[in-house]
Design the sequence.
């Protein structure tokens, strides 16, 4: 049991050290990015005003902005358990593929509880959802992107209909936060 704790702690310490470096090294300046409107069927459920609105989320860093969206509460809980709030909030020019609560609900409860209890595995899964660059809607049409976890995810589609790894649909894309672009997805991605 002690060995397992050490390996989890070591994995988290490594993530805490290397993620900011990877984010800073790979991230272009976010301030000069091209502004577009959010798209997708789930965007209609976003509040029109307040901290959970598109305007409100644009004022907060990504983890804080996600905490204002009730559809992302499971993701926010996972990010907190993995100790990634500060890392994500301090990164610049990243893209986060954010699974909804319904996406997490597709995972059998026993399996989800096991993942949430294993900080190293949880960190691996969550960092697979983050790309160290801003991804525009044009790039989603036929893209391949290296994730902070070290794997690659692919995107395909056109107009306002895009998939990630051929399994997850972007249900509300190109949501801006103070430091990131968020594409909300309907399925939790697994590192390959």
Sequence:
């Amino acid at each position: 049991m002690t060995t397992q704790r050490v390996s989890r702690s070591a994995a988290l310490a490594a993530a805490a050290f290397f993620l900011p470096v990877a984010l800073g090294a790979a991230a272009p300046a976010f301030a000069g990015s091209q502004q577009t409107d959010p798209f997708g069927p789930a965007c209609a459920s976003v509040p029109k005003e307040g901290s959970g609105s598109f305007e409100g989320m644009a004022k907060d860093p990504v983890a804080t902005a996600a905490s204002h969206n009730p559809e992302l509460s499971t993701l926010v809980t996972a990010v907190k358990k993995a100790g990634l709030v500060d890392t994500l909030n301090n990164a610049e020019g990243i893209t986060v593929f954010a699974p909804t609560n319904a996406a997490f609900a597709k995972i059998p409860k026993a399996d989800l509880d096991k993942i949430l209890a294993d900080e190293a595995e949880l960190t691996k899964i969550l960092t697979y959802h983050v790309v160290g660059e801003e991804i525009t809607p044009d790039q989603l049409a036929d893209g391949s992107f290296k994730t902070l976890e070290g794997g690659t995810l692919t995107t395909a589609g056109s107009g306002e209909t895009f998939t990630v790894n051929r399994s997850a649909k972007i249900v509300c894309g190109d949501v801006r936060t103070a430091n990131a672009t968020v594409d909300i997805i309907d399925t939790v991605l697994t590192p390959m």
About this structure: The two ends are 28 Å apart (CA to CA). Strands lie at 94-99, 130-131, 142-146, 152-158, 161-164, 168-176, 180-185. The chain has one domain: 2-185.
